Amino acid sequence: MNNTNNSFFATDFISKNQQVFLPILEEKRIELFIKREDLIHSLVSGNKFRKLKYNLQEATKLKKKSLLTFGGAFSNHIAATAVAGRLQGFKTFGVIRGDELSKNLTKTLEENATLREAHENGMKFQFVSREQYRQKLSFGFIEKMKNKWGDFYLVPEGGTNCLAVDGCEEILTKSDYQFDYICSAVGTGGTIAGLIKAKKKRQKVIGFPALKGNFLSEEIRKYVVKDASWGLQKKYHFGGYAKYDDQLIDFINNFKKDTNIQLDPIYTGKMLFGIIDLIKKDYFDEGAQILAIHTGGLQGIEGINKQLKKKEQLLIDVL
Ligand SMILES: *Cc1c(COP(=O)(O)O)cnc(C)c1O
Fold it and tell me: Residue of the nearest CA to atom 2 in ligand 1?
């Protein structure tokens, strides 16, 4: 038996599905439920928990003592890896995009809640330029990190690999088979791949990419069977990764008022904006039952609100 049996990851989290009630849903006769994966943990939330689970088991099996991974300054994956790593007894190393952040680390940690949290959970950082970040998987760079920190288990950027997809299959359980549609935000595609693998044949998975680009479908196809029923709605990225506007922030705030569910502006806010927009446009048949996965990511809101405040823009209401 390995030591993961007694751990955070040994818990079989089954998140509750919460029905939401909005006038538009009543008008169009659509039932919408939100799977509250955001409630798994405040920092190892939603899909990041699912994606790390089998990777950390694998690292344990390989007798690795530390984890190394990559991300941006507000990355949910960085925060999740730092906390999950500590809970499982791993040292953690984070390669962070943006070498300007290392100039005054104290100030960076003061201003950036994601990195502060990761730091407080023991993560050590290597800040790199955007140019270096693009080379992060090169043999040279990985060797440099090994010379600096010793051997480690490498968790890919965003955490996506086959083991992550296996973990994401566990988001869906038997009681979810009643739904006609399963919706998810998409970043690297690992989460939606797990959902596609776990769904029943008659169910359709719809992904809402949080970023621009046409590479995602191909990435997802690497993990799933050819004839599975799924698709991407590519018009709801709001200009690209971590881009947003007042309309999106307004939507998130109103959704919170109406349902008491907090969304984030990078992923879940865009997905729900998309779902509601598609409902308005009669994309779904009357009587359709939709399950939207709340993949978490709420730890990033504080950082976004700091940016919004500087620009004197509308802020995200937080409970
Ligand atoms: C990382 C993340 C996603 C994207 O997941 P992928 O598996 O990379 O597609 C979606 N939602 C939230 C909240 C995330 O943190």
Answer: 187
Distance 269 CA to ligand 1 centre (A): 12
- What are the tens digits of pLDDT across the range 11-52? 788 999 999 999 999 999 999 999 999 999 999 989 999 999
Give the Å distance between the CA of 291 and the centre of ligand 1.
Answer: 16
**Are 204 and 87 within one domain?**
no
- Ligand 1 centroid to 47 CA: how many Å? 6
Give me the domain span that covers residue 74.
65-151
Same domain, 26 and 170: yes
The answer to whether the beta carbons of residues 53 and 9 sit under 8 Å apart is yes
How far is the C-alpha of 249 from the C-alpha of 178, rounded, in Å?
32
CATH number at residue 113: 3.40.50.1100
- Contacts by 51-54, CB closer than 8 A, 24 or more apart: 51/77, 51/158, 51/159, 51/160, 51/164, 51/167, 51/168, 51/190, 51/191, 52/9, 52/80, 52/81, 52/84, 52/155, 52/159, 52/164, 52/167, 53/9, 53/167, 53/170, 54/163, 54/164, 54/166, 54/167
Domain total of the chain: 2
- Give me the percent of the chain exceeding a pLDDT of 90: 89
Q: What is the pLDDT of residues 269-282, one digit of tens each?
A: 999 999 999 999 99
Asked if residue 126 is part of any domain, the answer here is: yes
